Amino acid sequence: MAKDTNTCAVFLDGKHIADVKDGTAFAEEIRKNRRKGLISGEVNVAYIKKLGEVHINADKGRVRKPYVVVENGKSKLDQELMERISKKEIDFNYLVRRGVIEYLDVEEEENILAAMYESEITPKTTHMEVHPAIMFGLTVNSGVFPEFNSVGKHPLAWQLMKQAQGLPSMNFQNRFSARSYLLHYPQRPLIDSETYRAANLSMHANGQNFIVAVSTYLGYNMSDAVVVNKAALERGLGRSTFFKTYSDEERRYPGGQQDRFVVPTPTVEGYEGEQAYTKLGDDGIVEEEMEVNEGDVIIGKISPPRFLEEQTAFGAGIDRSRDNSTKLKAGESGVVDNVMVTETSGATKIVKVVVRSNMVPELGDKVGSRHAQKGVIGAIVPQEDMPFTKDGIVPDLLLSPMGLPNRMTFGHILEMLGAKAAVVKGEIQDGTPFARRGNALIEEYGNILEKAGFDRNGNDYLYDGKTGKKFAASIFMGPVYYYRLYQMTKLKLQVRSRGPVQILTRQPTEGKPRSGGIRLEEMARDALVGHGASLVLKDRMLEQSDKDNVWICRECGDMGYFDHIKNMPVCQMCGPGSKLESVEISYAFKVLLDELKSMHMLTKIRLKND
To answer: Number of folded domains in the chain?
Structure first.
C-alpha cells in the first residue's frame, strides 16, 4: 500500500504508531504539553524534514543536555528567577518542572536555534545555553581557558587528565587495585574553574604547579621534549608511587585434586632451587616490607600434573606435583606493601600481594599541561646549570617556544600569565570557560604584575647558569599546572640479548612479559634497504633471529638431512651419492617449505654454480 505523501509518519522509539498531516505543528504541540507538565520531561520529539517523519524518543540511555527555553524573543529565565536561585529559594529541578529549562537529546537539537548569550537572542531563537561552558564535558571544564585553544586539542586534554597521577582515593593503603599511582605532593592549581570547585576536585588533586620558562636549551627540548631541573626532582617534584597487585587462588580440579599455597620442595617438577624461595614465609607467601626484584617468587604454589598420573605396579599413583608459583614480572621491582589472604563464597583460598615501587621522574617520562602541551623529559639538568632570574628563581621546566604557536594552545599562555598574577596577588584566579573575555583578562593580569614590579607581559630577564651572562632577550616565564602521566620509562623499558624463542618458528618471543625482543617492522626494514645497509639487515633479520643451516640437494633442489650414523648428508629424493650443500636460511622459511610439502607442493631451491 503506497504511503500518502501529504501525511507525516510518527515513530515512537523507532516503531511506527501513526500518521499526521502537519509534522511541525504536531511536534510543537508535544513540546507545549511537555513544558506544561502534561507530558513527562524525559520525552523528546523531533521533526525530520528530509524524511517527512516525526521521531518521539522516550527510551533509556539517551544523552541529553539542558537548555533555557526562549519564547517570543525573550528568555524564560528572567532576573526574578535568578534572584530566587541565588537566595536558594528554588533549585534547578524547579526550573525544569516549570518549563523554564528543558533537556533535549541529539535529535531534538536539530530542531532548535540556540543562542550562546542573552544578547544574541533573535526573533527566531528557540533556546539559550544555560552556560556557554556546558558545550564541554567534565574534563575540559575542569581545565581553564579551553576556549582559547585549538578545538583539536580538547580530546587530547581529556586523555591527559585521565592519565594523570594524583590522589585517587584516601584509602589507598587498604585497596587492592590492579594498578594505581599515587602522587606524593599533589597541589591544587593556581587557576581553577567553577566545575573544579563544584566537583571538589582539589580533594583529589592530580598535578603540581611547575615554574615554566619558554626557552630552548641546547636542543634538548626540541619538538615534544622538555628540560627539567634536577634539584626540583630531588625535592619531590613529580615523584610518585606505583602500586601493582599480584593475585592467585587455590583452584580445584576434577578428581578431587587442587592447588596448594606452600613453599615448593625439591621433589616438585619445575623446582627452581632453594635460592628462588628464600623470600617466602612458612605459608608460601612473601612477607610484608620485603624487597623483591624481577623474577622473585612472591606466592609459592604447587599444582597437580597437567595429565593423568601413571599407575605403579601396586595400583597407586605417584604424587608428581608441579611448581606453579607467581613471580615478579620482567623489569619490575619494589617492596611488598600489603598481603591479603581470603576465601570466596565457595571456600576457595585467594592470596593478593601489593608491590609498591618508588617512581622518580627520569629521562623519557611523560608530563603534560591542562592544554594538551604534552612532552617527554629530554634532559635532567643540575640546578647550577639552569637559567635563573635576578631574584634567584630557577624554572622547574623549560618548554620549547615552538610548542605554543604550533599547537595553538593560547590558553597555556594565558594560564602562565594568570598564575603569575595569582602568586603576586595571593588569590586563586578563575579560569572558567567563557566566563570572561581574553583582552580584559590580559589587561587585568598585566596591571597586577606591573603593580608588583614585574613586566606586564610576564617576561623576565634570565641569566645563563653556565656563564652567568644575561640573555639578550627577555623570556616568558610563569607557573603552569602540570600532570605527571602514567607513561613511564621504567614500566616500558624492554631489552634483551639472548632469551626464549618460539617453538614453531624459533624466532624470539614477543612482548615484555615473555622476555621478548623488539621486532624490526616493515618500514624500518625499508629504511635499511634504502640506505643500503644490507649487513645490518642480515644481522637483525637472520643472525639475531632464526638462522638455521639446512642441506640442499644440487640435483633435485629439495631439502635433505644429515645422517649422524653415516656421518654424511642424505637426500631422500636422489638417494646415496647425491651432492648436498649446507645453506643458511631463516627457520621460518624452512617451516614454510615444509607446510607447502604437506599440501603436495614441492618447492625446489636452485643453488648458484661454484
So the answer is: 5
Using DSSP, how many helices (H) and how many strands (E) does the chain show? 15, 32
Q: Are residues 192 and 341 in the same domain?
A: no
> Is 254 found in the same domain as 351?
yes
Please say whether the beta carbons of 285 and 247 come within 8 A. no
CATH number at residue 524: 3.90.1800.10
Active site residue 78: no
Query: C-alpha 174: how far from its chain's center?
Result: 25
Q: How many CA within 13 A on the CB side of residue 450?
A: 8
377 CB-near residues (< 8 Å, 6+ apart):
225, 226, 227, 228, 361, 362, 363, 364, 365, 366, 367
Residue 284 to residue 1: CA distance in whole angstroms: 77
Q: Which of 22, 224, 455, 548 is catalytic?
A: 224
CB 246 within 8 A of CB 326: yes
* Nearest partner of 399 among 234, 156, 228, judged by Cα: 228
Amino acid at 352: K
Q: Domain for residue 135, yes or no?
A: no
pLDDT tens profile 181-235: 999 999 999 999 999 998 899 999 999 999 999 999 999 998 889 999 999 999 9
> Distance (Å, rounded) from C-alpha 38 to C-alpha 225?
60
Distance CA 19, CA 222 (A): 64
Query: Which domain range does residue 50 map to?
Result: 8-130
Instruction: Return the number of other C-beta atoms located less than 10 Å from residue 231's C-beta.
Output: 16
Q: Work out the angle at residue 308's Cα, subtended by the Cα atoms of residues 307 and 313, and round it to the nearest 5 degrees.
A: 140
Same domain, 355 and 367: no
Backbone angles phi, psi at 549, to 5 degrees: -95, 125
Separation between Cα atoms, residue 527 and residue 544, nearest integer Å? 19
Provide the pLDDT for residue 2: 40
| Predicted structure pTM score | 0.81
Closest Cα to residue 371, out of 226, 154, 216? 154
- Separation between Cα atoms, residue 153 and residue 230, nearest integer Å: 29
Length of the chain: 610
Copy the grid coordinates of residue 442: 590580559
Report residue 583 CA to chain centroid gap.
47
Q: Give strand pairing partners of 596.
A: none
- Helix 438-451 to helix 410-425 angle (10° resolution) is 40
- pLDDT bracket for residue 514 (50, 70, 90): confident
**CA–CA–CA angle 417, 421, 425 (5° rounding):** 175
For 142-159, write each residue's pLDDT tens digit. 889 998 999 899 899 989
Give the whole-angstrom CA distance, residue 114 versus residue 129. 7
